[in-house]
């Protein structure tokens, strides 16, 4: 998931209640929508796909009634006007009888076809509601083509405005909402798919995206960049960056490595380029911990923009240049690349499971610190404990179910990493690594719930751990420093030196007050 460099935009907390009330009103309104009829979360028997996939935090995110296999996205983008035109084809299959289904799209659709036949459609906030000419049978293949256009920076879903403009282009990166601002989607991590992304821009600009660069061709002064990601990917992880970049191509163990830094990145760009050049080294280290790297490409991008966070875009994370404002900062790359295992390959089943992403990536920073002599994971555990006394609000959040709009608060990261270090102490390092590697292997390219991780940890360790995880993940108080809770013996009297990595890691983790995916 993303980590924040600094607070520059309104927080989700500031706008959440207004947005939620509006969303709930919209969802309820569907039930009495006369033109197309049907209830908001319709049963499979009535031929209406639900407008949400069933996430408990965001009921209208994703959709029901079909499963996407592939997105073929064609967009043209003009930086001067921020105008985007799109033509996207979605290959899917119906999971129920479908007389109507939804797609998530914020731009204005002009034409929709289903299996080659024109379809009726209408739009409401966040949703493109489609009625195919012919009812789809359960199991039937469906090829949906949507043509659309708009100015993404002017489009808002309530207070949600995820589009990022830069001096010479734009960034289609954010979490959890960004897909609907540039392509129609079943926009939830549960419905992963493969992607072909074609971005057409003026010749002289670069357009970067996920996976392998298939081609870059010029016609009539326009260059089309074609990127392909063949491993299943969650919709929010798909991205494109347009601008002027210095691109470096290398290989590591046969895997192509593409890193890019904005051509006008200044001193921050120099630091970023040096840290991103360490991507293969970081991936090798993380592979030694968590198992084989799950994808066929790797890299990273540092645009010339202070958007304030980093995001784990599959195969190629994006980083705000603010991370390098004070010099080198390899920890942010360690964090985002750890998400290639935990977040990208293994994605959350619901957004409440976010600890499986953020706690895991933060703990990987701790292990990097330990490997490089900047403080052991045990000393970082202790330093985090000492930093937050028992009456600190840090302990009030139940990180196993943090609440809508609070998924990216400090405790999810730092108490999350503490949970894994406590588990490591409780079961032993060898068993702990078996648990982590098994999680990455058994849920590769799929999704996972916290309850499944708990069951796996108990199976691999042979220990009852339900109380342990309840204390760390689902209680609103500071865990008692006991051996049963994963504290080392004599924790109350032992002391560790403050890790020199602590300030660096805390800089990466500054997410407590505001999230910047809006």
From TrEMBL:
It is an enzyme of class 3 (hydrolase). Residues 70-237 form the Aminopeptidase N-like N-terminal domain. InterPro entries: Aminopeptidase_N-like_N, Aminopeptidase_N-like_N_sf, Peptidase_M1, Peptidase_M1_aminopeptidases, Peptidase_M1_dom, Peptidase_M4/M1_CTD_sf. Its EC number is 3.4.11.2. Pfam families: Peptidase_M1, Peptidase_M1_N. This is Aminopeptidase N. Keywords: Hydrolase, Metal-binding, Metalloprotease, Protease, Zinc. Residues 330-472 form the Peptidase M1 membrane alanine aminopeptidase domain. It comes from Nocardioides mangrovicus. It comes from the Bacteria. Transmembrane segments: none annotated. One of its GO terms (molecular function) is zinc ion binding.
């Amino acid at each position: 998931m993303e980590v924040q460099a600094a607070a520059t935009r309104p927080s989700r907390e500031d706008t959440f209640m207004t947005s939620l009330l509006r969303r709930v009103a919209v969802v309820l309104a569907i039930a009495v929508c006369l033109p197309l009829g049907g209830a908001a979360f319709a049963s499979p028997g009535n031929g209406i796909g639900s407008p949400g996939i069933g996430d408990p935090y965001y009921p209208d995110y994703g959709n029901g009634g079909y499963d996407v296999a592939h997105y073929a996205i064609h967009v043209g983008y003009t930086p001067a006007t921020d105008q985007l035109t799109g033509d996207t084809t979605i290959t899917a299959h119906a999971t129920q009888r479908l007389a109507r289904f939804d797609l998530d799209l914020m731009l204005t659709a002009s034409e929709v076809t289903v299996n080659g036949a024109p379809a009726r459609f209408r739009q409401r906030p966040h949703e493109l509601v489609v009625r195919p000419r012919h009812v789809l049978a359960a199991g039937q293949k469906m090829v949906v083509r949507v043509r659309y256009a708009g100015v993404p920076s002017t489009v808002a879903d309530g207070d949600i405005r995820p589009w990022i403009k830069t001096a010479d282009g734009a960034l289609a990166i954010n979490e959890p909402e960004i897909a609907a601002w540039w392509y129609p989607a079943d926009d939830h991590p549960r419905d992963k798919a493969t992607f072909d992304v074609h971005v057409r821009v003026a010749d002289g600009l670069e357009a970067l995206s996920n996976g392998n660069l298939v081609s870059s061709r010029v016609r009539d002064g326009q260059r089309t960049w074609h990127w392909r990601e063949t491993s299943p990917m969650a919709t929010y992880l798909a991205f494109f960056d347009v601008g002027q970049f210095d691109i470096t191509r290398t290989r590591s163990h046969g895997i192509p490595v593409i890193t890019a830094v904005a051509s006008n990145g200044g001193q921050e760009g120099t630091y970023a380029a040096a840290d991103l050049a360490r991507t293969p080294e970081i991936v090798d280290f993380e592979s030694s911990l968590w198992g084989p790297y799950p994808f066929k490409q790797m890299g990273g991008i540092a645009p010339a923009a202070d958007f304030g966070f980093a995001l784990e875009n599959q195969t190629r994370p994006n980083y705000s240049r603010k991370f390098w404002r004070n010099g080198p900062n390899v920890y942010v790359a360690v964090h985002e690349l750890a998400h290639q295992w935990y977040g990208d390959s293994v994605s959350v089943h619901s957004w409440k499971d976010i600890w499986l992403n953020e706690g895991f990536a933060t703990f990987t920073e701790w292990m990097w610190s330990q490997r490089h002599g900047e403080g052991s994971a045990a000393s970082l555990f202790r330093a985090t404990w000492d930093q937050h006394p028992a009456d600190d609000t840090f302990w009030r959040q139940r990180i196993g179910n943090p609440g809508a709009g609070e998924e990216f608060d400090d405790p999810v990261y730092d108490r999350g990493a503490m949970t894994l270090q406590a588990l490591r102490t409780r079961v032993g390092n060898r068993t702990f690594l078996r648990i982590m590697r098994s999680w990455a292997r058994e849920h590769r390219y799929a999704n996972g719930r916290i309850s499944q991780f708990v069951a796996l940890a108990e199976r691999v360790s042979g220990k009852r751990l339900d109380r342990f995880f309840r204390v760390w993940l689902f209680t609103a108080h500071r865990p008692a420093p006991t051996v049963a809770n994963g504290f080392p013996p004599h924790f109350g009297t032992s002391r560790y030196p403050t890790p020199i990595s602590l300030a660096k890691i805390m800089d990466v983790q500054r997410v407590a007050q505001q999230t910047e995916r809006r």
